[in-house]
Structures are given as structure tokens and as C-alpha cells.
């Protein structure tokens, strides 16, 4: 294995271009000196390449295959120039080493197929594709500095077969951009069998994401945010984490879908694998009508918060939606919607939220089944209690003849100041109060099962309560204990042995009767 330096400007395969008149071969350490421009006219082998300041390597659309058995320090220089189109394949070498590319110009395609570790010593931009078949590429330098990685084309991790962890991309605290805005007939980031993606803590942008259906396809997302802004336009899908045993970890990070000029779908099959869940999910489209919809599976899980600030999340007719934290549909100036099914084909599947806040320009088109509220908002409502549901002025709640079930173990606030009412409301709780902080209309039935000492009551004495259908108090109290003057109207009222109705000092109006004929 020889050390060969350039002698003059010329073609790589010309003897006059190299000192000693020897064209480099596989394993040689090649140095391109100041003022020399070496041009590839065909694919060539080498061990390692260093481009000194003032030196230039012109790719010509060809490929260098690097197999550095000698353990040379640099794969590429930090001061020279890459001109034209150049591909690099790293297929061998006996030691871990850095990849440098901080001079002028970019590599097009980079392939690593060697079971060693390669560090970035400078920010790396690839004009084409990154392929990791075996080996590890880590974005932190040997000095501990996080380097940014940008891939314009597709990134593929893993050989597509065999054991886990054969190829790994480790992102550390780096900012990563993989196929941003890519709209092609493939995915921007492909985590294949044998491939491992380690997200780290930085900010990431993916055009789209694919994971193979195997436990040997592994991904841990960044603890920061991933923005998904493109899609596989053949499959019309931007995110595919399927049910076939892939190993996915959301790392308590955030995924944001943000599209411009198209709608797309996602697969995230929480019904088959509990680990296939978002932690925080944000929908912020570049357009009020742009939407993301689930595809495949029967359940979308968000461990923590779901925030829709612009555009639509449209659930499939067969998809449940489970959100452990707050659901916020609001951005004050842009239209934001959460739809259970489509407007013409309403879903009857369950929706389970920690809380629901619908702000100005926000809309929740409810399931015709049950929307269950399990906690209460992290931010208290106007009554000082966590909000179960808050519909502010300018927000819209479309009930679709569904039921709201409050099942929290906490005191809660219920506020409808926007457009729309609940249809059926069931309060099935223990040891806590529900306070409605607005005039409240329920177009169907109200059923109360509360611990005896606790109440469903207004926040102020003048608030009204209108229930078009039947009111059934199985246990607990309905009404305020003091100074309650607001108008009450029920279709009918049934008070069972554990229930109490504390009447308003105004008028309680009964407008209908139960199926048994009782008003």
C-alpha cells in the first residue's frame, strides 16, 4: 500500500498526473496537492483520499471505491475542493476513522459497507443518497463536537436481511436532514432489516420514514423534534411504522407533520404493538385544508399530547384514537381540525383524550361512539380546575350524535363558549366535582354516576343547564349547594337511590318524559 501524491493537473488514470508516474490502486493513500485538479474519467479504487488546500478532485459522475487497510486518518480532506459529481463507496479498512468533507463542493452518493465506525469531523452534505449496508456512521467527531448531516436523496440503513445492528446511523446532538421535502416514488429514510437508527437529541427533518416489518429493523427517535415534510408519492404515505415486529422507540420526542400542496397518510399500528406510538404529535400543515390520515391498523396512540395548529388530522373509519395527554386544536388564526372519520362517513370508534381544548378556528368532529376524557388539561380552566373540554369562542364541537364520557379521578372544568353542544354526556367518576363554567346545552341525555359527596354544578349561580333528553342521577349530586338561580330544563329527571338533585331557586322545566312515561 503506497502513499501517492499528485504531480500535475490531469486525469486520475493518467500516469503524468502522479508522482513517480504510478496511478493509484486499491489501498493506496492518495494526496491531491495545491493547484492540482485530478479528474475521474472512470470508476477508480483507492485506500484514502486527502485533498489539500488549493487542490481539486473533479468527479465527472464517477465513483471512488475506498478500501483503506492501512488505517489512514482521513477519508476526505477538510480544505480542498470537490468539483462536479462524485460518488464514494467505502468497502474496507481495518480501523475506525473520520469522514471529512468541509471544503468546497459535495459528494453525491456515499455508500458504507464495512463493519467499522466512521465519524464526521465536519458538517456533511450529500447531493444524492446515503447507504449504510454494514458499519456505523456517527455524527459526532472524535473531539466530541456534533456535526450536521444533510442528505438530499434517500437514506437506507441496513442490508435488508439478517441480524440486527449490522448498520447504524447515530445522530447524537446533531441537526439531521434526510430527504427534506422529497416527493418521489420511495421513502426518504429507509430502516431496513439489520438497520438501526439512533436519533439522539437534535432537530431532525425527514421527507418520509419507512421501517421494515422485522424486529431487526430498529429505530429510536430523537428526544427533540422530527419534522416530516414529504412523502412517498407512489404509496401516498409519509410515515410507515408497521405491525410486523419492528423495534420502535419514540424517545419521548415530538413528531410534526407539515406538508405543502398535498395530502398524505401514515401507518403507526398501535393496536398490534404498544411501542408503536407517538409521544407528542403536532399537525401543522402549510395550508388549512391539507390533511394527514392513518392507513392500516385500527388504532393510533399518542402517549402524551396531540396538537393541531393548522390543517387536518382525519381518522380512518376503522381507527381508534388514544391520546394520553392534552388534545389542543387551536392556532388562533389558522383553520385546524380533528375529524373522526370523514364528514360523509363518521367513525363510531373510540376517542380517548386526557383533555380536549378547541380554540379559535379549531374544530373537533366527534366520533358517533364515545369520546372519553381521562384527566384534565395541564393548564387550568377559568374555574381554576383542569379543563375536561374547553370550547372557546370561535371553536366548534360537532357531536355527530356521540357520547362524551368523563372518567377522570380529578375535579374538572367543562366549558362550551364556542359553536356546538354535546349530544350525550355521561359522568362516571369518583371523589371529584365537575363544574360547567358556561351555559351548557346537552342535546341528548345526561347520566351522572358520582361519589355521593360530589357534584355536577355550575361555576356561578346564573349559569343555565339545558338537557333535551333524559337526566338520570344514579349517584352524586346535580346542582349548586348555594345561590343557584339559573334556569334548568330537562327532558325528564330520574333520581335513583344514591342520587340528589339540588334545585335552582329559579325554574326547573321538564319538557318530555322517559320511555316509561315519567316526567
Explain the overall architecture:
This protein has 519 residues and is mostly beta strands. It is built from no helices and 54 strands. The protein has a 45-stranded mixed β-sheet that branches. A 4-stranded parallel β-sheet has the order 2-4-7-9, with no helix packed on it. Strands 1-3-6 form a 3-stranded parallel β-sheet, with no helix packed on it. Strand 37 and strand 38 form a beta hairpin. The protein is elongated. The N and C termini lie far apart (98 Å). The model has no long low-confidence stretch (mean pLDDT 91).
Amount of helix: under 10%
Global structural class: mainly beta
Shape: elongated
Mean pLDDT: 91
What are the segments in which pLDDT stays under 50 over at least 5 consecutive residues?
Answer: none
Q: Tell me the radius of gyration.
A: 31 Å
Count of beta strands: 54
Q: β content, as a range?
A: over 45%
| Helix count from the secondary structure assignment | 0
How far is the N terminus from the C terminus?
98 Å
Describe the main β-sheet briefly: 45 strands, mixed
Q: What's a concise summary of this model?
A:
With 519 residues, this protein is mainly β. The protein has no helices and 54 strands. The strands form 4 sheets. It has a 45-stranded mixed beta sheet that branches. Strands 2-4-7-9 form a 4-stranded parallel beta sheet, with no helix packed on it.
